[in-house]
Amino acid sequence: MNRNDKNTKINNVQIKSTKLSIGEKTKNKDIINTNISSIIIPAIILVLTFILFIPSNVYARHGDSGFEGGISSGEVEGVTTMDYKEVCFITGQPIEFEGTLIIRKTTRNNIINTTYTYNLKNEKLGATLNRTAIYNTKLVEKSNGQVSEETTLSRTPSEVIRINNITYTLRSNDFSYACIVDSQPSIQYRAGNILSKKVYQVISGTNTGTVTCEIVGDTYAYENSWGSTEAMMLEYIINSRVSNGQSYDEWTGTASISLSTSSIKENRFQENEPDEISFRGGYVESSYNSSVLEYTCDLPEFDSQGRSTHNIKTTKGSLEIETFPSAVRLPVPDINHLRGHWAEEEIKELFSIEIFNSKNAKAFNPEDYITRAEFISAVTRASRQDVSDSSENKRNTVRTTSNNRKRKEEEIVSPFSDVAVDNPYFEDIKNALERKIIPESTDGLFYPEEGVTLSEALVILVRSLGLESLAPNPNAVTAFKDNDLIPEEARSFVYVAHRIGLVHGDDGGYLKPNEKLTKGRTAALIKRYIDYMRSGIRKDYRERILLF
Q1: Range of the domain at 385
Q2: Is the pLDDT of residue 344 over 90?
Q3: pLDDT value for 541
Q4: d(Cα 448, Cα 357) in Å, to the nearest integer?
Q5: Are residues 74 and 150 in the same domain?
Q6: Is residue 342 part of a domain?
Q7: What is the pTM assigned to this prediction?
Q8: Residues 31, 73 share a domain
Q9: Which of the 8 DSSP states describes residue 539?
């Protein structure tokens, strides 16, 4: 395979606290090391964290299509059986199957046991494919905080394919899948490799033989609060040797598959038809799963007797599955006083998805400077599984008495001396610290009422995505005319932010990196941040791989 490896890197990022650290400010400009690789979390907790990254109504997950080069509809609320499609090459021609896939998982002692049950058919050819495969996935946490997944078969799968009175029965299956999982504050990344060799016994009347399929492939995936995508690229070598009377018919073919499965969450504004109604419209949030598969195969042509020839035929095709979208009406904020403001739509959407607190909607002034507390609250909510439940997801510090081992009354402790536990933004600030969106403070202060510059904001957003390494090393130069005004420690982050579309600059090509953010500019910035997690990153994992 001629493929470039894509490695996710976690670099140590040093930031001068007086310029860039949202978590702290010190007078002596100490350098804070924000490396998160020393954080060690039990692997079983990491498994639960992976699941919690997935928002409500968006269910397509890593592994929902299995390892057979097919696509599924993904998990849908209230549905245990998924629609599934795959293409089979073992006959010497591509045969498209469709049917159902059922996945059952159990977890014990950091081992995930997964059973895939396929019931597929091709009605036009009267062909069937039935398969049950059981995999064991071992989770191993590495010293840098990443998690290695090692997947093997529990035993040889049960698989029988019947096509044109020919039966293909799986006799052996060597399989290995290795994956590394890198969890960043706002998103989780995966990269894996598949190796598989399947040997089928062929029975057709008195004729017998074998077909061997060797498969090599790569997988890439991400998951965040606004969607997920898994891309898989597989290369096949098929060798067939089947008796044909007194001789054997032997042929070799190749095939390649590229597929992508995505969970997509989108918002659209719905105008109300009646004029005499208390609100003119509201946002509708729709969620659905979409899977696309493209294949190309070079297989021999066959003569009228069914014997292979030396002529090679190239065939291309594609398969698609898309679930029916589910829709939810979002709250309608009272921001009529903002009509006509340039950031009205962004502000309205952030109130609707509860990034901004709707209780403050009437008093919201987009020209006010946003405080550090308000900004971190918005970022935390924009990147969390359920943005409306911060008060219910508390991780309180518990002090216990070791003598009787009985838990005393829980005591909530603030990590910052200038952020009281009754501060309306306390839970979001505490959550941001625990998730490493902000670094720990050396002086114990957060400075919640101070403003935030654009460069400071971009450092926080890019760091939460874990994409610092996309910048040239060591000296990143941005395309902005005021590049020299960007703090040196922030330049790499600004470079990445511009590359992925978080910031564009003004019409004159200036960024103005040291200007404090207003609430209106913050709304536009957070909206682009969400849009990147929702659809921007999907282009790299889907459209780019499938050459859309």
Answers
A1: 16-37+327-539
A2: yes
A3: 87
A4: 17
A5: yes
A6: yes
A7: 0.82
A8: no
A9: I
